[in-house]
């Protein structure tokens, strides 16, 4: 016989004797208040207030006096209405206001805002005595009332708001106070409640809120934060905030106002890392030292100091990276041996050699005796890229790097000479030298008739002066937009102008590029793969301009599809890079979701497409015979996928959400859209090899579509760049075996292996720095250049323009924590390193890192790691221990 479950009623907890006594006492007090003897009311009210204030309860339950008084709520309200206007009536209003905070009045009390209404009728004294929950309810109702009747509310509520703000700022409730003033649009009143002990929490919270509001409100919040940091002499944080909104006037003012030498050095290192141009007065007390730091002339020496400390100065050969002896098939390549492989594999080894030994000044291929033999093992454009790898080897070392490169400038081979010009630009990337060797050596070749030499000169100029906004360099390149004799030169010139003038949309560059695009409208020239570079160059001028792209977006409406959508999407991508703007992401996803209409005249049957694909596969050098350029009608969608990752970059929740969306797109999207998904996923996790991303990209790297596989393999290199990640290294070795007979995929596998071991594990591509508070625009531009070209890999990177890979040099930076003393000499100190923890809005002094390991500087920091000092002998003047930090020696305590 089946058993039947019987529901047993829960035993209702009976009130204790103390509770019954309290109920009886409160009932008696209510009777006195509502009775006919007015003489008993004041003492009864005082007693009732005393019982409420002294009641003890847990944090998760309603205080018992409020619970027991709830049934008398309406009765007390009725009594209040009949009372004459005197102190007793106000005192009763206080009690009713407090009861309305709970469940006493039900939904009707919440709807009528009884808590606030009776508070305003009450004594308006000592409201803080009723605690945080009462204050919070008042804040909620004040915000509702303010929007309901703003003018009247201002006069009535201001005294109450002032009392609430004083309570919040003195009772560790600054966050609620900020929320209240933002809600009622009185944020400008906040500074009067800021003090030395609470301004940091307020500013940190406001700064985090600025990401989620519109542009007008954001500008207001950021202005307030900057002013308060400057007011309390937090110059480093004020500088970071000023850089975020590109307020060059404030940056210059901070440098002129601050008089502390150590702080000035630290400010200079932050600007140097961000490649930010500072207009420093030549009469400044520390002009020479600061100018030296801002020019990044220190970078090479400090980097070699790091390498010595980590004992990684010994150069690595490509074979040491490939580890072909671990592959289950015979190796396909023997470096400098008799078993020569294809030109493509030699080219891959040139790139790997350059990126792995970047900045170390020596290698086992080119800088050795007879190293030029290796260059001649490549052909045509391969020789250009092989020679240019010298620039990576001597990265940042302008004085030491020019001599070994100079001898190749006298070569009779144009490709080698062009590679040397590009190498000169790479050496000068992010470094400013008083002699200005880049312009002196490259300027003569910019307008030459020889297109091969033009390529190296223009690329070199772009890297050497990226982000400098130098007008003389712009004047040198700008005429080439109209005089360029090939689409390749036009694309490179526009890209170079975008790099040099990144984020500065108020000059003649955008107008000149746009006029050129209009000239080419309704011609087959727009179908060229190099038009992607033209569009990117135009868009870089509007980097993080937000609403500033309205005019160029409207101007693009005259163009035909799909070119119009592609350029407009590129503009959106650059204008909102790293903002995390949800509305922009939704707009981009709408573009991805739309069905692409292909005109009938451009439709092809399946047989034609297969034939074209077979022609493309395996062709590394030039495609034989002229091939008519065709429109890719889903190019706007593929660019939109890339743009989603760029906009969401740096915002953890947004990145997690877009990864889910990319999963759907990769299943149901067009081929060119699927091609972009791998790039977008890697761009949202640069130099940060997360397991979830590795798994997805590994799956796509086995895709039947060659372009999807190539981009996924490249994505694996980007997410592991400079990390020496063992899991990624093993996956790439397996892919080398899997794609052993596919030259394009194998080339990319080898290159990605080099990226994973970039700088022997000391470098990173991550554009976010200074505790991920700042986004390096030049670094992101370098990444975007390669990403955009890989949307059409066969026409660009896997064709003859593989030299565009060197634009990644703009994103290369040491992933270090280097501590210096007051004389800017390396200073070993003990630090704790762990996973970064978000402490915005947390009470007390929360831990900023988790999973702590103790090290002695210099140390390498992963993307999501943070450090803090483990010694009390020094203090930091930077907002966080990251990059190069100058420490101040504290006086010894006796």
TrEMBL record:
GO terms for biological process: proteasome-mediated ubiquitin-dependent protein catabolic process; regulation of protein catabolic process. InterPro entries: 26S_Psome_Rpn1, ARM-like, ARM-type_fold, Proteasome/cyclosome_rpt, RPN1_C, RPN1_N. Residues 26-327 form the RPN1 N-terminal domain. Residues 602-618 have a biased composition (Basic and acidic residues). One of its GO terms (molecular function) is enzyme regulator activity. One of its GO terms (cellular component) is proteasome storage granule. The keyword Repeat applies. Transmembrane segments: none annotated. It holds the Pfam family PC_rep. Residues 602-621 are annotated as: Disordered. The keyword Repeat applies. Keywords: Proteasome, Repeat. Belongs to the proteasome subunit S2 family. Component of the 19S proteasome regulatory particle complex. The 26S proteasome consists of a 20S core particle (CP) and two 19S regulatory subunits (RP). The regulatory particle is made of a lid composed of 9 subunits, a base containing 6 ATPases and few additional components including PSMD2. Interacts with RPGRIP1L. Interacts with CRY1 in a KDM8-dependent manner. Binds to the intracellular domain of tumor necrosis factor type 1 receptor. The binding domain of TRAP1 and TRAP2 resides outside the death domain of TNFR1. Component of the 26S proteasome, a multiprotein complex involved in the ATP-dependent degradation of ubiquitinated proteins. This complex plays a key role in the maintenance of protein homeostasis by removing misfolded or damaged proteins, which could impair cellular functions, and by removing proteins whose functions are no longer required. Therefore, the proteasome participates in numerous cellular processes, including cell cycle progression, apoptosis, or DNA damage repair. This is 26S proteasome non-ATPase regulatory subunit 2. The lineage of its organism: Eukaryota, Metazoa, Ecdysozoa, Arthropoda, Hexapoda.
């Amino acid at each position: 016989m089946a058993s039947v479950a019987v529901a047993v009623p829960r035993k209702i907890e009976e009130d204790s004797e103390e509770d019954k006594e309290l109920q009886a006492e409160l009932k008696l007090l209510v009777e006195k208040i509502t009775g006919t003897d007015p003489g008993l009311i004041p003492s009864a009210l005082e007693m009732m207030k005393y019982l409420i204030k002294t009641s003890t309860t847990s944090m998760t339950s309603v205080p018992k006096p409020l619970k027991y008084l709830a049934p008398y709520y309406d009765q007390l309200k009725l009594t209040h209405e009949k009372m004459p206007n005197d102190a007793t009536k106000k005192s009763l209003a206080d009690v009713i206001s407090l009861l309305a905070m709970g469940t006493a009045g039900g939904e009707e009390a919440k709807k009528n805002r009884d808590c606030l209404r009776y508070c305003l009728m009450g004594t308006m004294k000592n409201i803080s005595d009723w605690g945080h929950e009462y204050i919070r309810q008042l804040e909620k109702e004040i915000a509702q009332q303010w929007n309901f009747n703003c003018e009247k509310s201002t006069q009535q509520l201001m005294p109450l708001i002032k009392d609430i703000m004083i309570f919040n700022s003195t009772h560790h409730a600054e966050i609620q106070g900020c929320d209240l003033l933002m809600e009622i649009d009185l944020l400008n009143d906040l500074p009067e409640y800021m003090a030395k002990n609470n301004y940091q929490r307020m500013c940190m919270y406001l700064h985090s809120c600025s990401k989620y509001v519109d542009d007008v409100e954001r500008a207001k919040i950021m202005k307030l934060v900057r002013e308060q940091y400057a007011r309390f002499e937090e110059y480093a944080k004020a500088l970071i905030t000023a850089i975020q909104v590109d307020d060059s006037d404030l940056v210059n003012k901070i440098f002129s106002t601050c008089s502390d030498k150590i702080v000035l050095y630290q400010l200079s290192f932050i600007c140097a890392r961000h490649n930010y141009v500072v207009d420093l007065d030549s009469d400044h007390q520390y002009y020479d030292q600061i100018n030296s730091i801002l020019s990044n002339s220190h970078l090479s020496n400090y980097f070699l100091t790091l390498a010595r400390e980590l004992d990684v100065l010994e150069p690595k050969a490509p074979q040491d990276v490939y580890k072909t002896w671990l592959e289950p098939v015979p190796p396909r390549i023997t470096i400098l041996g008799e078993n020569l492989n294809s030109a493509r594999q030699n080219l891959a080894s040139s790139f790997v050699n350059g990126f792995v030994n970047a900045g170390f000044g020596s290698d086992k291929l080119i800088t050795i005796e007879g190293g030029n033999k290796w260059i001649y093992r490549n052909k045509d454009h391969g020789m250009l890229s092989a020679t240019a790898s010298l620039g990576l080897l001597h990265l940042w070392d302008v004085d030491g790097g020019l001599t070994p490169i100079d001898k190749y400038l006298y070569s009779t081979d144009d490709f080698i000479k062009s590679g040397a010009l590009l190498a000169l630009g790479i050496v000068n990337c992010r470094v400013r030298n008083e002699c200005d060797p880049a312009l002196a050596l490259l300027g003569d070749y910019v307008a030459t008739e020889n297109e091969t030499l033009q390529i190296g000169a223009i690329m070199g100029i772009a890297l050497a002066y990226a982000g400098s906004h130098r007008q003389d360099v712009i004047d040198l390149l700008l005429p080439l937009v109209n005089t360029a004799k090939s689409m390749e030169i036009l694309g490179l010139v526009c890209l170079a102008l975008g790099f040099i003038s990144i984020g500065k949309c108020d000059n003649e560059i955008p107008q000149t590029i746009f006029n050129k695009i209009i000239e080419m409208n309704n011609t087959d020239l727009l179908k060229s793969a190099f038009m992607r570079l033209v569009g990117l160059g135009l868009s870089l001028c509007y980097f993080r301009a937000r609403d500033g792209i309205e005019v160029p977006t409207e101007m693009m409406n005259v163009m035909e599809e799909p070119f119009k959508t592609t350029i407009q999407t590129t503009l959106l991508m650059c204008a909102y890079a790293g903002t995390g703007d949800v509305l922009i992401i939704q707009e981009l996803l709408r573009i991805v979701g739309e069905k692409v209409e292909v005109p009938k005249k451009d439709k092809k049957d399946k047989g034609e497409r297969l034939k074209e694909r077979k022609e493309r596969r395996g062709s590394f050098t030039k495609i034989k015979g002229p091939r008519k350029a065709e429109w890719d009608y889903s190019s706007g969608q593929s660019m939109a996928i890339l743009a989603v990752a760029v906009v969401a970059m740096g915002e953890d929740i947004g990145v997690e959400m877009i990864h889910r969306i990319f999963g759907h797109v990769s299943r149901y999207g067009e081929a060119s859209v699927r091609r972009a998904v791998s790039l977008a996923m890697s761009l949202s996790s640069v130099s940060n090899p997360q397991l979830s991303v590795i798994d997805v990209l590994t799956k796509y790297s086995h895709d039947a579509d060659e372009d999807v596989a190539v981009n996924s393999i490249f994505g694996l290199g980007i997410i592991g760049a400079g990390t020496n990640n063992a899991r990624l290294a093993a996956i790439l070795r397996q892919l080398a075996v899997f794609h052993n007979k596919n030259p394009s995929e194998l080339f990319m596998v080898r290159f990605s292996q080099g990226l994973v071991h970039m700088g022997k594990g000391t470098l990173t591509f991550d554009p976010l720095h200074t505790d991920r508070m700042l986004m390096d625009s030049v670094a992101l531009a370098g990444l975007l250049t390669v990403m955009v070209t890989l949307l059409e890999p066969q026409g660009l990177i896997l064709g003859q323009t593989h030299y565009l890979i060197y634009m990644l040099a703009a994103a290369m930076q040491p992933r270090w924590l280097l501590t210096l003393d007051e004389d800017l000499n390396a200073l070993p100190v003990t630090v704790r390193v762990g996973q970064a923890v978000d402490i915005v809005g947390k009470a007390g002094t929360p831990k900023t890192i988790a999973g702590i390991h103790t090290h002695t500087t210099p140390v390498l920091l992963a993307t999501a790691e943070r450090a803090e000092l483990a010694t009390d002998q020094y203090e930091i003047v930077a907002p966080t221990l990251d990059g190069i930090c100058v420490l101040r020696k504290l006086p010894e305590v006796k």
